[in-house]
Amino acid sequence: MSDRATVRESDPIVVIAASHYHRELERPGTESLPMIQQTETQQSAPVFDKGLANTIVAESEISFIDGAKGILEYVGIGIDELARNSTFEEVVFLLWNRRLPKAAELAAFIKSIQAEYDLPEQMWELIRQCPKDAGPMHALRTLVSALAMFDAEADDPSPAANQRKSMRLLAKTPALIAGFDRHRKGTTFVKPDKTMTIAGSFLTMLNGQKPTRTVERALDVCLILHADHGLNASTFAARVTISTLSDMYSAITSAIGTLKGPLHGGANEEVMHMLNEIGSMENIEPYIKNKLARKERVMGFGHRVYKAYDPRATYLKTFTKQVAADTGNRKLYEMSRKIEEIMAKEVAAKGIYPNVDFYSATTYFSLGLDLDLFTPMFAMSRIAGWAAHCIEQLADNKLIRPHVKYTGPHNAAYVPVEKR
Ligand code: CMC
Known about the structure:
Layout: E1 14-16, E2 21-23, E3 36-37, E4 43-44, E5 55-56, E6 63-66, E7 71-74, E8 77-78, H1 79-85, H2 88-97, H3 103-115, H4 121-129, H5 136-147, H6 159-184, H7 198-207, H8 213-226, H9 233-243, H10 248-259, H11 267-278, H12 281-293, H13 311-326, H14 330-347, H15 356-366, H16 374-395
Parallel strand pairs: 1-5
Antiparallel strand pairs: 1-2, 3-4, 6-7, 7-8
The chain binds carboxymethyl coenzyme *A.
Carboxymethyl coenzyme *A (CMC) binds near residues 229, 298 and 304.
């Protein structure tokens, strides 16, 4: 692992790599924890690190984050450069192969993805069986899990089979999301268009008509920005699952369940609810100040790793301005800017800035997506990163199994049920 891939010098870090502990810190309250046998000559006690905020559990060459400087790179290339110049498909190739493709390789890669766009007939039927009032993230988690039953290679652990499954998962997820949305709205399915990009085919399936180039590109950029992000909670969940030598479908299902939470991928939908609740420019200041006074979180702000501006938000802020103007949603953008201004006065000193979810909410809304499809959009993109991390984990696997600090009683008596 390169020096750049380590965390800031000032951070107290416990590195628990696949096969050895690099460094370990003494912390209060760890004396009573069990010792772990490391090697014949080295023993160390686990340290208590709530939320694993200061623990490195794997080495990775996929994405690099410098939280203090606000840098995000995929395989060394800045996110801003990728968002400006690349496409989602090319970024997926980059994440999966750790290099940019030559033109012919990219064309072949896109063709292989497109060949996997459609779903087995039973999957379309399964979508029809979903309750129409189910949340799309519940539907997505269930349907991705179900895909395993239609894949003869589901339990083949070879790297080649895992790559093919990654491709299928990436290619079929848009049809699951769009198919469920059409089902709940009582409209007929639109099959994927195997001549289009992932973003283009998805929007065609969702809306029943081809998107404009601007709208397709806007979604493509959002997919690029969300594709990977170090060991975020859902990626960790995927790596934990695959580290048990379970399968790719189980790992991605775990990840989707984890992404759903409002502290993670669910925040983009919450941002939109907040904007709707605020309703007007005049209401912004009292609303935000009251929220902070009540010690409530303002969704779309703050990050476990970034204590500077999230570089994805930096890009989206400018990008969204144009998308919102082009689609008649300027007011929403102006409201977001005002919220940011107030938050800057109130909490920027604490290192709380907008994160990727803040401006992506306005972008998705401007693209005409329903609010509860915002988090599925995040999943559709992040599958690229989850799959890359699963394959990387398996290449040098060690079961991920941390400790818990037990705080319950000892030597308690068993009281028979009739005497309790
Ligand atoms: N609004 C107001 N105060 C906040 C916020 C926020 N959004 N985020 C953190 N704080 C405050 C928090 O109250 C605490 O203050 P104090 O020290 O006075 O008690 C301080 O900042 C540190 O908070 P923390 O919870 O210890 O920090 P964390 O690193 O555990 O939290 C976070 C990271 C993302 C869970 C948190 O910032 C948050 O809840 N944000 C809102 C939800 C959100 O937007 N999530 C999307 C994250 S980006 C997309 C992704 O990668 O998944």
